Amino acid sequence: MTVIEAHDLGVLSYSNDAPQSLPNKPFEYLAYGAALISNLDGELKTITADNSIGFHFSNKAELLALLEDLLNNPEKTRRARKNATTYFKNQCSADTIYTDLTSAHENQASYGRLDPSQDA
């Protein structure tokens, strides 16, 4: 068992002026079935909320309150972890990504867009 697998939650705490919008770390956590706790806004916040794969905080007080709530309500963490596992499998796994990519290339090829004989 890896260190990440031994944890229920993956915490992503960035400074307010961090240039990150969608770092790699959330996907590493998701790959191991950890729910996310993040203060990042933007795309990660949307993905997290839309798929119920974690929780958002804006400041230290919110983080502490969130952690206390999760300790007192472990079912919230279990649901988020289950959703995180499903989200990763359906949206982020190599099997999904490469299957979709292959289909896109095959569709392009069927329309002659990848046919080198059409290059002028």
SSE topology sketch:
Layout: E1 9-12, H1 25-31, E2 35-38, H2 43-51, E3 54-56, H3 60-72, H4 74-92, H5 94-110
> What letter string, H or E per element, gives the SSE order?
EHEHEHHH
- The end-to-end span amounts to 55 Å
Number of strands: 3
Count of helix runs: 5
Q: Describe the biggest sheet?
A: 3 strands, parallel
Let me know the average pLDDT: 84
Please estimate the helix content.
40-55%
Shape assignment? globular
Class inferred from helices and paired strands: mainly alpha
Strand order of the largest sheet: 1-2-3
Contiguous uncertain segments of 5+ residues: none
Strand residues, percent? 5-15%
Could you say how many structural domains there are in total? 1
Rg: 19 Å
General description of the model:
With 120 residues, the chain is mainly alpha-helical. It contains five helices and three strands, in the order E-H-E-H-E-H-H-H. It has one domain. It has a three-stranded parallel sheet. The longest helix has 19 residues, at 74-92. The termini are far apart.
Concise synopsis of the structure shown:
With 120 residues, this protein is mostly helical. It contains five helices and three strands, in the order βαβαβααα.
Supply database-style keywords:
single chain; 120 residues; mainly alpha; three-stranded parallel sheet; 54% helix; globular
